[in-house]
Amino acid sequence: MKQERVNGGSLWPWLAAAMFAPACQSLGSAPWPWTLALALGAMAVFLCAQMVTAPGWPCGKVLAAAEYLFLVLCVGMVANWVDECWLGAKSGWVIPVVVLVLAACAADRGAEKAVRSGATLFWFIAMGFVVLAVFALPDVEVSNLYPGRMNSYGADIGVLLIPGATLLLSRQRGKEPWPWALGIAVSAGLISVLTAGSLSPAVAAKTPGAFVQMVRGLEILGVAERFEALVAAIMTLGWFSLLSLLLTGAGEMGNKIYGGSRAVPVWAAAGLGAGIYLVGKRISMWPMAVLAAILWYGIPVTRALLARRKKQ
How far, in Å, CA of 31 to CA of 86, rounded? Predict the structure, then answer.
């Protein structure tokens, strides 16, 4: 089956929407200089990889199968993160599985339709993030912004490698992603700055999902207001965008493996990912970050460069 090429003008907003929830969940606990430097470096690597692999790269069946299995692991991990976003709802497995099903519904129609829905959601997510950032700014204390010890537990690196998932998709030549990559890097630094400034670096480092916990207790005009509904809503939109991106990639890899409908591998990946989540096994972020670097960056770039050399 012919590979479907996605429009870059919609792909990059979709990527930004997919980055929002994992960035808020993981980047608030790291020192802001480390987060900003890491984000700028990761986006620079992504831009280079995107340029080398555009509009697509040669991928055989064996490699497509390896990419597919990794995407399934990613889906299971993200479903666990969705669950953490709704801890207060006491819904059990319902919300993560429903979000996963909705993401599969968006992805099984093909990459072009999935990218349009993700690009539309970006604007709602962006507006929500601006609201949260504006109300969080008054709580920032300059004394808390003194750089602390820079460290990483793997989650921040893994999150900032997510743009590599777009390299699995066949892309139309056109709009360059560098403004979006720069915006993602700046937003990542802003999340870390707001969290450290409001909570202090020591508290942020010890708090899982520090940014999300911080914005849930924001104050308006000195009156404590809980932003539970707003935070949960925009985080859920972000998780949906990320899951739809991963499942769309799974559909593309499934198409390379056996050339049939993309819907079958999409729903198979969603089902396997749900199984990983329901089993309750936590996946360490460091191995996932290493695999993402290899499967989403190292191999695609190497294959694309070798293909260019053969043509010459």
Answer: 26
Instruction: Indicate the helix (H) or strand (E) that contains 197.
Output: helix 178-199
223 secondary structure, DSSP code:
E
Instruction: Please report, as a single letter, which amino acid is at residue 63.
Output: L
Q: Using one digit for the tens of pLDDT, what is the confidence trace for 182-205?
A: 999 999 999 999 998 988 888 888
Give the separation between CA 236 and CA 250, rounded to whole angstroms. 21
How many CB atoms lie under 10 A from the CB of residue 272? 18
Give the C-alpha distances (Å, rounded to integers) separating 290 from 140, 159, 260: 34, 12, 30
R_g of the chain, CA atoms, integer Å: 19
196 with 145: CB under 8 angstroms? Answer: yes
CB atoms within 10 A of CB 94: 12
CA-CA-CA-CA dihedral for 112, 304, 64, 252, to nearest 10: 0
For residue 238, the one-letter residue type is G
- Is residue 275 a contact partner of residue 76, using CB atoms and an 8 Å limit? yes
| Location of structure tokens 């560098």 | 178
For residue 226, count other CB atoms closer than 10 A to its CB: 12
The closest alpha carbon to 166, from 283, 8, 25, 3, belongs to 8
Q: What is the DSSP letter of 198?
A: H
Residues 171 and 11: beta-carbon distance below 8 Å:
yes
SS3 at position 224:
strand
Global pTM reads 0.92
**Which positions ≥6 away from 285 have C-beta within 8 Å?**
153, 154, 155, 157, 158
pLDDT digits (tens, 9 = 90+) for 208-237: 888 888 887 775 545 445 667 788 889 999
pLDDT digits (tens, 9 = 90+) for 234-245: 999 999 999 999
